[in-house]
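Subject: complex prediction, re-run

Hi both,

The earlier run crashed halfway through, so I resubmitted it with identical inputs.
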Amino acid sequence: MIQNLIDGVLTGSYISLGAIGLTLVMHILRFANFSHAELLSLGAYAALVCDALVSALTPFLAVKLAPLSLTGALLIAILLSMVITGISAVLIDRLVFKRVREKGQELSMVFASFGMALVIRNVIGLIFGLSPELYSKDIAFAMVLSRDPFILVKPDQVFVLVAALILMFLLHLVLSRTTFGYALRAVAENPSLAQVNGVNLRRMITAVWLIGGGLAAVAGVFYGLSHQLIPVMGRDLVLPIFAATIVGGIGSVYGAVLGGFIVGIAGNLALVVLPSGYTPSVPFLLIIAVLIIRPHGLFGEARA
Amino acid sequence: MIGTISYLVFFATTASILAIAVLGLNLQWGNTGLFNGGVVAFFGAGAYGTLILGGTPQDGHIGGFDLFYPLALLGGMVIAGVMAWIVGLLTLRLRHDYLAIATFGVSVAFENLMRNAEWLAGGAKGVRGFERPLREALGDGFTYNLFFFAVVLLILIGVYVFLERLVASPFGRLLRAIREDEEAARSLGKNPARIRLVAFITGSVILGLAGGLYGTFYAFVSPQDVLPTLTFQIWAMLIVGGAGNNRGAIFGAFLIWAAWTASGWALSRFAPIEAQLYTGSIQFILIGSVIVGMLMWRPHGLLPERLVVSQRGKHPVAQQGD
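This time it finished cleanly. Structure:
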């Protein structure tokens, strides 16, 4: 039970990171982006490539930072991957979503994002093959935190949680303390009024994709560290991160963080009562529960 | 020769069944502007419902009620409708992305439930023990397939005529009114939420009908048949054909299904052996690109919706100028 709770918090850390970007995009561009989870795969695979490159160029970094299984090279790879994924997200928006946005209604964007999700997922499958990949071939041994109740935690998972919390705190500082953060919130509240006040809408949209893509990359790597990399990982992640945004309330960054942890914990606690095969349905049940009890989520506001 | 004809009948049957599904989606998306992200769940509910209600008793899972076939098909449609009713009730009041996400969630949960719940529908092994209606009289061969095709075609025509009438009726006008301007419709005393719910359920029931026919055609359904892939395919058909236009929906269904089967055949025939494993990936990239490309360059499809102007009055300003 307590083990499930701890695993849930750890799962929640990468779902939250994925949900933050999604909720920002959904708030500012006003469409449910079904291809957001593919940014997580993109980031995870970009980090895999960067890790190999950095390790080859600077072998002294390819040493494990004990007790973690990750290396200095992977840490640099994560930073590189954040940049690559952020830029990819901006490019996808410029090449596809922007054009659809100018042509049609909001819901055409949802269709387009479904199409993009299929394309990205399967291109990754074509490039990297359908078999799973790992960042480190070594088995990471779990530490025994306590014997009664018996609790196991992998050092990598602790790193993932701490790193995720630090990133969220940094984002909080940016959103609440800088002019940029105010501008972002202004655009989300009322795009026209924000523009009248001299906020550059195009630049804000670019910024949202950069932030969303960057956080998605980290989330993807953390997912890869906790499980393994498969090209279809986006398919398994899309519902949990959507559930996190709905539980938290669409548009609320803090809601997305809390929602991510709730989804992660609920998924792992469900293992106590349900066979593990049903885990993929848990986010859906959460969505339904939230829609019944509090349709606009924990921190969301009603908006047409 | 008979092989070709036999294949054509097989192809046309599948395409017609899918066309019925596309018509159902067209009522939701094309005419009412409701985004159904879980097409496959309602399709699957129809298929599973029909086979469980109409099949012979099986060990290990419920079902085998051995109902008279039309009743079983109707039962499948009702199950799809009830699912749509629950989802619609919860989401149609909210902003539109909720419906997209919730319906997508339904499809994930539905596939997940069917894959795991052995007691319900045989789990990953699927539903067996269904006997196609009139099989004793017509056998298993070409005659049966031809007969089944004729039935499917009749149902397709029936659904088409029904939807054309519906769209031309005051109710259809109301659907378009709500799609275009909800506030205006509300100011005329209409209840958009209820009308949307009715359209969503009707569309889902048609999706369930298509699913039921699909299950009957193969006399088998398994979780493999209710993967999200089918949702993408049915959408691609509607977007390519032209949302809002029933003829476009049918045309799109045949076109995309032909392209899908042809690309699968060409890849299996001409692609190098090493690439065979990736046939599915290549097909998905193609269908994803078709969806995105259509939205970018021809958002209204090949056969766009023809907007009806009910009264062609003179433009008031132009009149003054006369």
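The first helix of chain B runs from residue 2 to 31.

- K.
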